[in-house]
Amino acid sequence: xxxxxxxxxxxxxxxxxxxxxxxxxxxxxxESFECIFCVVDYHAITQPYAVEDMAPRIMDAATWILAxxxxxxxxxxxxxxxxxxxxxxxxxxNSVATMGDLNRMTQFKEKAEQQASVxxxxxxxxVLQTADIVLYKAERVPVGxxxxxxLELAREIVRSFNARFGPIFPEPQAHTGTAxxxxxxxxxxxxxxxxxxxxxxxxxxxxxxxxxxxAVTDVNRKRLKDPGDPEKCNVYTLHTHxxxxxxxxxxxxxxxxxxxxxxxxxxxxxxxxxxxxxxxxARAAELKAHPERVRDILAAGAEHCRKVAQETLREVxxxxxxxxxxxRIS
Length: 330
Ligand code: TYM
Description:
mainly alpha; Rossmann fold; about 55% helix; two-stranded parallel ribbon; Tyrosyl-Transfer RNA Synthetase; globular; binds ligand 1; 2 domains
């Protein structure tokens, strides 16, 4: 089985963008790949946060990943900082990655624009991401569209490293599903926690409807009798991901024919969205009642990953001429 790696930041409640863009694919892929999934807390600390919130956020992310259907019998789930080799390899890869490449990263540019003082971690963030992947020699990386540029950089770093020190790492390939970029309820920006335009996986049914009601649809459809264009409507896009095929077809036809109002269309989406979310929420509630189960899964995951990671780093150091003195204890 080919190995696959992916990660999610513990940056607040996971939302349906994370679910459709990544985690729902993870659940499918665990059937055909050796999967390693990671809560990337060392990435999350590059943004300001309250210290007391971090541990609950990490547990929360792990809980929702499991609730979505990642199965510890089939896949490995762990927390990045439990395997220190991630940062060790990131340092090594820092000496291969170039400032020019890192400077081109859109996410870095966006974050740098929003902050007066930019920490170096935000700049080297994609190097740590590369280390995450290649530490396990993973060949596939299921992500949403926003991560494709980081993946291209990872491939570049791998090529440079292999050219200089020998072919150790496979070039990782991104894997995107049908929901590469889920827009927020504003239909303007990508759905993201920092924009406040999300539906969280844990949101109660009434709260989801309260968010859907004012969600932006096709802006040209101002009155009920105006025909709409489903392709320009984010509510329709969400239908394609949550509603059964006949419903999606009916919704599109009704929209084009101005046969149904947007609010009614949203009520139908709400029903199908909750059909998906309700069992996930039930599993999350059960796991939250037994946090020790989640901790055990994470501990077992970290133990497994540490073994693989240590072996990779041993090989890397050897190829780089770093372990010839005999001073290393383990
Ligand atoms: P993060 O935590 O921002 O997002 C986790 C996953 O969710 C996807 N995603 C989306 N997909 C579609 N539409 C959206 N609106 C949307 N919002 C988020 C992301 O593409 C991602 O797949 N840097 C990564 C975490 C990371 C990682 C890694 C990923 C660290 N190391 C190694 C893969 C491999 C991030 O910030 O994801």
